[in-house]
């Protein structure tokens, strides 16, 4: 399939959360500190945030997080799985669209400023840069913090192009189509329950989004994604569950993946499929929290098989879908 973009002076910036530079403990500590120092992620008073992050969270989490990153790291490559998939997606998208494409990370490298400089090095006559935050559903701790960071960098200097930011694509037909294509082969092999899991959020964030309307309502958007996928799969809701994982506290959105996995094991469910539509690429929250931790929990509780369906990553059909989303 060939995509024709008439605006040849256009560039594309793909933005994701980021990951540590390496799986060594100093790099993991640096990454955790950068992410949790973001007020959109850690919503506590500004004066208290560094005390909480540096005095409690990092000392408690640095060793376990480092061990978890080492378990999911591809030691044959220099990059984390997340960054490796992002680079592959950018390269394929550049080939497909014949537009300059770069990757930026909200925390870590390459950062937004470096990515914009790389785009200008590829084409110093850019008129527009299309920014795609790789988050299908809106959340302040993912989509909004990326958009704000891109804007902050953009307005620091007189860039010779304008920005066009793509809105959350939770119901875009191309995104839904890619999810369906990723899920269908696993369904064909047989299963008892298909679990859709999304990253959990603090309930305070969820309530604020709900008050603002559907374009900011995380729960509505996750449910709409699931509804559209099930419609395309022609699957009954009773064969599925929607849950949330990777919560960092008690007052977070549920039901949790771990709770539902234990329930399914107690109900003698044997074969679970788990998919995480909120992530564009595999990362710690999918490769460890789901494919290792959740899988072990299910087996320990008496289940027979939990299969994690990989994220869209840089599959060819997802590359085509991204081209549609940004066009």
UniProtKB/TrEMBL annotation:
Keywords: Cytoplasm, Heme biosynthesis, Iron, Lyase, Metal-binding, Porphyrin biosynthesis
Transmembrane annotation, as ranges: none
GO cellular component: cytoplasm
Record localization: Cytoplasm
Enzymatic reactions: heme b + 2 H(+) = protoporphyrin IX + Fe(2+); Fe-coproporphyrin III + 2 H(+) = coproporphyrin III + Fe(2+)
InterPro entries noted in UniProt: Ferrochelatase, Ferrochelatase_C, Ferrochelatase_N
Protein EC: 4.98.1.1
UniProt KW Nucleotidyltransferase keyword: no
A GO molecular-function descriptor: ferrochelatase activity
GO biological process: heme biosynthetic process
Residues engaged in binding Fe(2+): 199, 285
UniProt pathway: Porphyrin-containing compound metabolism; protoheme biosynthesis; protoheme from protoporphyrin-IX: step 1/1
Function description: Catalyzes the ferrous insertion into protoporphyrin IX.
Family: Belongs to the ferrochelatase family.
Name of the featured protein: Ferrochelatase
Organism in which the protein naturally occurs: Dysgonomonas gadei ATCC BAA-286
Record gene name: hemH
């Amino acid at each position: 399939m060939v995509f024709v973009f008439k605006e040849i002076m256009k560039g594309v910036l793909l933005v994701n959360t980021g990951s540590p530079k390496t799986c060594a403990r100093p790099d993991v500590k640096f990454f955790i500190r950068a992410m949790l120092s973001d007020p959109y992620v850690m919503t506590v008073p500004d004066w208290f945030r560094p005390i909480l992050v540096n005095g409690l969270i990092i000392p408690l989490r640095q060793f376990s997080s480092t061990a978890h990153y080492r378990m999911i790291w591809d030691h044959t490559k220099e990059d984390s799985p997340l960054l490796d998939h992002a680079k592959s997606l950018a390269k394929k998208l550049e080939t497909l669209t014949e537009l300059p494409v770069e990757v930026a990370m909200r925390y870590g490298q390459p950062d937004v400023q470096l990515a914009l400089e790389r785009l200008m090095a590829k084409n110093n006559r850019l008129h527009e840069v299309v920014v795609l935050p790789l988050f299908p559903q809106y959340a302040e701790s993912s989509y909004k913090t990326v958009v704000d960071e891109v804007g902050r960098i953009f307005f620091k200097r007189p860039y010779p192009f304008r920005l066009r930011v793509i809105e959350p694509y939770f119901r875009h037909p191309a995104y839904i189509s890619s999810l369906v294509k990723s899920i269908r082969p696993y369904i064909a092999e047989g299963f008892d329950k298909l679990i859709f899991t999304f990253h959990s959020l603090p309930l305070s964030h969820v309530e604020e989004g709900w008050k603002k309307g559907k374009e900011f309502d995380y729960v509505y958007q996750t449910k709409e994604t699931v509804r559209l996928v099930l419609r395309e799969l022609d699957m009954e809701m009773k064969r599925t569950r929607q849950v949330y994982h990777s919560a960092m506290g008690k007052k977070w959105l549920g039901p949790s993946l771990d709770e539902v996995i234990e329930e399914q094991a107690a109900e003698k469910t044997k074969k679970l499929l788990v998919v995480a539509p909120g992530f564009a690429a595999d990362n710690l929250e999918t490769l460890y929290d789901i494919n290792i931790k959740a899988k072990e929990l299910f087996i320990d509780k008496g289940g027979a098989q939990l299969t994690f369906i990989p994220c869209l990553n840089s599959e060819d059909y997802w590359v085509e879908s991204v081209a549609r989303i940004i066009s």
